[in-house]
Amino acid sequence: MSVSRVAGTPDYTFSGADKNIPILFAGKCLEKFYAATMLTEIAQTDYVGEIRTKGDKVIIRTIPTVTIKDYVKNQKLDLEQPESPSVEFTVDYAKYFNFALDDIDIKQMDIAMLDVWSGDAAMQMKIAIERLVFQTIYASPDAANEGATAGKINANINLGTSGSPLLMTRTNILDLLVDMGTVLDEQNIPEVDRWCILPPWMVAMLKKSDLKDAALTGDAVSPIRNGRVGMVDRLTLYNSNLQYLSSGNTYVNFGHKSSLIFVSQLVKTEMYRPPDTFADAMKGLNVFGFKVIQPTAFGTAVVQKGV
């Protein structure tokens, strides 16, 4: 089996005669992937179905800004015809897994190892995709949502820079989270569906701060699954090791769910018998794409661990 890709255009068509696609295993992989990933929590995922029907490109319709005008009694009204360009979103990333279990091992095991391994494949796929997303989008915020003079209105909020990162301690971590909320406030971003991705050492600082656990809201979904920690100042906090790192700096992203588009589809999952061996094998192909489509609702802070 091989996957061919035409230059400039993703091509995910398999060649060969083996088309045995077990729906059971495909469903389990996809279910476990979405249970583990936080991207489905912090990004818009409404366009996942579009991959099946339209292929590699999705057209996203944006909402125009309507102008509010003053009114004088008996005046003639100006008629506005708002227009807002659509955004073309390209699903141009793909990752795969391919593993085999020897027939002898299958006979000697008392559990369904292919099922177990498919679950691990889903988790490893999640890690690979989230690492790529977080290490790409960090550089995409609006100019007013990053740097030492962040803030659309007052430009007086310091979110750190690559040359002068914020040194985080348990005494100032709450200040940073509040500042992130203020940055979004000054962009008139809705208060619901806000989020922030923190590295584990910042989560630990938060738990040791004056806040401790008192203001961390509970979560019906186990943090082991999607990394959710709780909520502070309208920001739903997630724990992740996958942020972009450079020269000792950690780039901490925050924003609103409307800022990021993420689509992912496990388009192929096949069980097959590899040649030249006695084994059952399983392979899967995941195509996905992501894009910050509303930079004003997305921000980045540059931090380092302080004393």
User: Poorly predicted ranges (pLDDT <50, ≥5 residues)?
Assistant: 1-25, 218-225
Percent helix, as a range, is 25-40%
CATH class of the largest domain: Alpha Beta
Annotated CATH topology of the largest domain: capsid protein of prophage fold
Please compute the radius of gyration using only Cα atoms. 23 Å
Secondary structure tally: strands: 12
What is the overall shape?
A: flat
Structural class: alpha+beta
Largest sheet: 7 strands, mixed
User: What proportion of the residues form beta strands (DSSP E)?
Assistant: 25-35%
Enumerate how many helices there are, as a single number. Answer: 8
What does the model show?
Strand 10 (260-272) and strand 11 (279-292) form a beta hairpin. The chain has helices at residues 23-36, 39-42, 48-54, 103-108, 113-137, 173-186, 200-208, 223-226; strands at 57-60, 87-90, 93-102, 166-168, 194-198, 228-232, 235-239, 245-246, 249-256, 260-272, 279-292, 298-305. Strands 4, 5, 6, 7, 8, 9 and 12 form a seven-stranded mixed β-sheet that branches. The longest helix has 25 residues, at 113-137. It is built from eight helices and twelve strands. The radius of gyration is 23 Å and the shape is flat. It has two domains: 23-63 and 83-137 and 263-290, no CATH class; 143-260 and 295-305, capsid protein of prophage fold (2-Layer Sandwich). The chain has 307 residues and is α+β, with helices and mostly antiparallel strands. Helix 1 packs across helix 5.
